[in-house]
Amino acid sequence: MKNLYQFSALDKKLTEWGFPIIKDGKIYPPPIRVPFKKAYLDGKIKFKSDGIYLTDALGKERKGYLYMPTYRVSHYDTFPRFHLVKCSTIDAFINSGLLKGYYEWSNKEYNDINDRDTGQLYKDKVLKLCSYCADMIFDKVDDSQEFYQTLATEIETDIFGYVSNWERISKEYRKNKNYTCESLLKKSSSILISFKL
What is the pLDDT of residues 38-82, one digit of tens each? Predict the structure, then answer.
């Protein structure tokens, strides 16, 4: 069923805040993109047989991939490949000890790529899977868009697009926030405005 209303500004804000994305009766994890070097050195990256995981700020492990956001697109006449596992390319990169800022961890469907030679920005590109990674993984995906689809969880929604237990989720969230309005801004640390819903 097609949504009657589109709330693109709200959807964009919720995405910025790290909320999951709900579309087509599925829930997707919040899109995240972080520099690999810092996350790896901080111990937040784990290589597993089924993927490359990032431990987020809440301590939850999120499945994603590595890619180069800056690449010699015009020189190679192609976009960079993405890596789902610790293939020979990623292993050699880590073992080189350089760990320069070449790679980023992402779980996004599309990524922006900067051409290192020309400075041109290519927006929202679907990336192809590294051939070495493809030889190592059981569940085949061809590109970042297909990978993103594997992250989705089926959910039940009503005719308005709300999840079936929305009232309970809403009540628990408000209770967790102590029924305090999040949209009101504090003018100073001594002023707190709250109200009961």
Answer: 999 999 999 998 889 999 888 999 999 999 999 999 999 999 999
| 58/50 Cα distance (integer angstroms) | 22
Do residues 92 and 109 lie in contact, with contact meaning Cβ atoms separated by under 8 Å?
no
Q: Which residues contact 41 (CB under 8 A, 6 or more apart)?
A: 99
Flag whether the pTM goes above 0.85. no
| Cα→Cα distances 182→18, 21, 140, 162, 195, Å | 16, 20, 43, 21, 11
Q: Is the dihedral of CA 174, 176, 180, 184 positive or negative?
A: negative
Taking a C-beta distance cutoff of 8 angstroms, is the pair 161, 21 a contact? no
